Amino acid sequence: MTTAGVRPRSGRGMRPGPDAPRGIPAPRTWTRLELLLAGLLLALAGTAWLVTGALAMPDMSSGILTGMRPMGGGAVIPPTAFGFFLLTWVVMMAAMMLPAITPFMVGMRRLLGARATTGTLAALTAGYLAVWGVAGLLGYAVVRAFEATAMGGGPLAVQVGAVVLLVAGAYQFTPLKRWCLVRCRSPLALVMRYAEPTAGSRFGAFSVGVRHGGYCLGCCWALMAVLLAAGVMSLAWMAAVAAVITIEKTVPRPTLTGRLFGTALLALGAALLALP
How far apart (Å, rounded) are the C-alpha atoms in residues 25 and 13? Predict the structure, then answer.
């Protein structure tokens, strides 16, 4: 299947097995330019990790599952710090998500060929991160709700955290999770359908990045809720959640892997409810 003006390059890496991400070339087949692109994205991710560590407020390294404590004045995140939270959130998403979308970006470059300019790839990445930036609005509201719960003290905070784990674990088994994960792992249909707008303008590429980001958000929102409950700006918890997301997007048997993660979250949530 081809789209006018955009023909996938033949050769190794573009014929994956039945469980492999479609449209993403195997790393062993990447050209030097594609390796350079991957290195650039990973370098940006590394920089984002460093910036996140520098920007993160100390009290945001814990959540209702890990001993969240209000700052003076009874607020973990003052309303005036909303812009700062959103900025840190976007940087944090870049740190966590750029490694996971690196194979996708390499696949996009290969499928678009010479029409995959630097501006096109930058617009795709910006569209992807824009989705997660908007998600930060809800993330801020959730953290504020967790903060109010933590201020009440008692076992309620642990119980709320346990419910977050149970919801996240249950979501791993839902058809919506699988539907989003398939499209997040296999962007070939998205690329072929929107190849012309992607290659035709930066706005078109941005729009496709938004679509891909939407699939990723649908796939990962529950894991992000776990991060909010564990410590939204904790580098350790960020690394753990980012590892889970990357594994889900790259391993040969994503359904089995997702169910294993779901089972672990369900077991942990049930244990917290039984023995808070």
Answer: 4
Asked if residues 40 and 23 have their Cβ atoms less than 8 Å apart, the reply is: no
As a whole number of angstroms, the distance between CA 60 and CA 233 comes to: 5
The Cα 260–Cα 266 span in angstroms is 10
Helices marked H in 31-155: 32-55, 82-112, 118-151
Dist. CA 268–CA 122, nearest whole Å: 39
Question: Backbone phi, then psi, for 234, in 5-degree steps?
Answer: -85, 120
The separation between the first and the last C-alpha atoms of the chain, rounded to the nearest angstrom, is: 55
The pTM score is 0.77
Q: What is the pLDDT of residues 137-168, one digit of tens each?
A: 998 889 888 888 877 766 888 889 899 999 99
For residue 131 the two structure tokens come to 């989705």
Burial classification of residue 196, based on how many CB atoms lie within 10 Å of its CB (0-12 exposed, 13-18 middle, 19 or more buried): middle
Residue with tokens 């035709």: 200
**Average pLDDT of the residues of the chain:** 77
Nearest in space to 253 (alpha carbons), one of 15, 19, 17: 19
- Local structure of residue 64 (DSSP, 8 states): T
Structural domain boundaries in the chain: 27-274
